[in-house]
Design a protein that fits this description.
There is one protein chain. The protein is of the alpha/beta class. It has one domain (about 5-260): Rossmann fold (3-Layer(aba) Sandwich), CATH 3.40.50. Helix content is about 25%, strand content about 25%. The chain has helices at about 65-75, 135-145, 170-175, 185-195, 220-230, 230-245; strands at about 5-10, 20-30, 30-40, 45-50, 80-90, 100, 105, 150-155, 155-160, 180-185, 200-210. α1 packs parallel to α4 (about 185-195) and α2 (about 135-145) crosses α6.
Length: about 260
């Protein structure tokens, strides 16, 4: 049975127990090997990949994003639901809310951000007018209707380098540029998924107001506490979306110009 669907779990999402009959599989890529857990849900095989490792052992700037995305593609994955924990630059997006982001701003500094560095892979210029799969986002928004949590349909994700949290001055700048939420992992993950021709959508859980908005200093423990408190809603959103995903894709994600090279 082909593994068409995948979940990339961010901070606080390390457990694939929504799946049954779980097994581990290692996938080889030119960028390194990737270990994923594969289980079944509603008769469909689903891959689960904890972005930071099972014990949150990998910081955001050192995640092997290229191996992760290419590993999923080599498994046969076509659609990816990713989760991220974020701080809010937008007071209308409150702690505990979910945001189905539709745009991003990239402030990373040291990460490989493409599969296409020239040489054997060549150079590919990929359109990013619509970075996140519209079909998958629409399915997630429909699935969110039954949840007792506020879900924002759209938002701009600012990706900072990390692993430090941002300064209040940076947060003011991000907000002035149109940023709604800030995290440390969605770029280059979304970029690589789009280059690889995967349908990719992110649900961001707001865990706190960002620096300068929050009345208290930011801590990682605070992030984990909010994720744990809202974990059941996140699980229900993912499960409902997985059930609704059709066999055929009706979007343009697979037509990414570099997808056939990978």
């Amino acid at each position: 049975m082909a593994v068409r669907l995948a979940i990339i779990g961010g901070t606080g999402v390390y457990d694939p127990r929504i799946l049954s009959n779980i097994r581990e599989q290692e996938v080889s890529t030119p960028y390194g090997n990737v270990r994923v857990k594969i289980g079944t849900y509603e008769g469909e095989e689903v891959a689960f990949l904890p972005r930071h490792g099972e014990q949150h052992s990998v910081p955001p700037h050192l995640i092997n994003y290229r191996a992760n995305i290419l590993g999923l593609k080599r498994l046969g994955v076509e659609r990816v639901i990713a989760t991220t924990a974020v701080g809010s630059c937008n007071r209308s997006m409150k702690p505990g809310d979910f945001v189905l982001v539709d745009q991003f701003l990239d402030f990373t500094k040291s990460r490989p951000t493409t599969f296409f560095d020239g040489g054997e892979m060549g150079v590919v210029h990929t359109d990013f007018t619509e970075p996140y799969c519209p079909e998958l986002r629409s399915l997630m928004m429909e699935a969110a209707k039954g949840l007792s949590v506020t879900v924002h349909n759209g938002g701009c994700y600012v990706c900072a380098e990390g692993p430090r949290f941002e300064t209040p001055a940076e947060i003011r700048m991000y907000a002035q540029m149109g940023g709604d939420v800030v995290g440390m992992t969605n770029v280059p993950e979304v970029v690589l998924a789009h280059e690889a021709g995967l349908c990719y959508a992110t649900v961001s859980m707001v865990t706190n107001y960002a620096a300068g908005i929050s009345p208290t200093p930011l801590t990682h423990e605070e992030v984990l506490e909010v994720m744990a408190a809202n974990g059941e809603n996140l699980k229900q959103l993912i499960m409902s979306t997985l059930k609704a995903i059709p066999k055929e894709r009706h979007c343009a994600c697979a037509n990414s110009p570099g997808a056939s090279r990978l």
